[in-house]
Specification:
Elements: H1 12-38, H2 41-45, E1 70-76, E2 85-95, E3 101-111, E4 121-125, H3 137-140, H4 149-153, H5 156-164, E5 168-172, H6 184-200, E6 212-217, H7 219-234, E7 240-246, H8 252-259, H9 263-275, H10 287-295, H11 302-308, H12 327-333, E8 347-352, H13 360-372, E9 377-382, H14 387-393, H15 395-406, E10 415-417
Parallel strand pairs: 4-5, 4-6, 6-7, 7-8, 8-9, 9-10
Antiparallel strand pairs: 1-2, 2-3, 3-5
Length: about 425
Amino acid sequence: MHGLPVASARRQPVMWWRIGRQCLTILALAMAMLSAALSMPVAQAAVLSPDDDPFYAAPADLASHPNGAVLGSRPIALLGLPLPVTTWQLRYRTTDSEEHPQLNVTTVLVPSMPSIGPRPVLSYQVPENSLDSRCAPSSTLRGGTVDDMASTMQDAPFIADALLRGWTVVVSDYEGPQSRLFDGVTSGRGVLDGIRAARSFAPAGIDASSPIGTWGYSAGAFATLWATQLRQEYAPDVRIVGTSAGGVPTDIPTMAQRADGAVGAILILLGLARNEPDSQLAGLLNDRGHRALVASDTSSCSADLAQKYPDVHVDDFAAVPNLLASSAFRNAATPNELGGTAPDTPLYLYHSVADEKIPVAGYTALVDAYCTQGATLTAIHSLFPTHIGAAAGEAIGGMNFLADRFAGTPEAPGCVVQ
């Protein structure tokens, strides 16, 4: 399995027994989190949505604070449960892609076990497939939004793995208060400033020498890689020792065409129409499309749209035929495509060759672009079938890659493509 340390034949049974025990522990914790969270409707109902929660309200002097500044904090119970994890939420200042000051929220999870030396920090980007802030991870990690809980709970095993390894986990609302899905610059800056905020928050116990890694899958991989691309320019003080990312969204028009007829294409369409007004994409929507766009702020979690539009195509929202092939759609997508700048952070990337949601050709092109620009990366063309299959099957390799970087093991320069 990729990324596992080499062991002698004599020690292999012990190693695999430990790995198996760890996997069972992670699975048990994740299932307990899921079962308990979904069985607590009263507690979930008590969680205010971000639009109604004063914690999310930006202060009048927001612009006067530097990026990453902590502007408030509160302790929370993770998923409203008595879990052995100390958890805070932090309000912090960041800057969106339009250069506007923005108030974001990040959730910081610290495991109960002591750390030998500086505790590693993992910035974990949950795949937030939403245009609605009530489905942001800060809301779902408190136990809110039952209808969209599955999005965050799919990541519970991997977050549990990181915590069991003794790492602090930072989960930021990288889409921001307007839930700007597939806004690359806003997402990347939100990730970097979330790390800055967690690092400056003394109760989290993050040492100045704590190694920092980043992780994300699917939409979370999009935000993760945008953060690594922007780091040198936007946050050179945030030194990232390694990044693992899988199921990477690439070639947005082709991805939307693959998803047409399902909720994913509608999310992409409405997100780009809202985020990129200069593209004129919104002007190509018909009345139904405009109504959906107006409603997108309050009823556009992926679960909402799946129920509202169980069998709908993009052109059902369009005033012109074949909207996904239009220049307006391409103009909205192009500024948010990955690959323009190679990260200076060692990368571990993986993608199923049979991914039914995000075609592997775009991933291969992204790897080629990064390698041509001199990136240091390991790229796995995974044989695990389907988008979700690769997420589960390649996770241990990705986590072990980060563990090696946290331990100070150097990664050889260059590209290894498998």
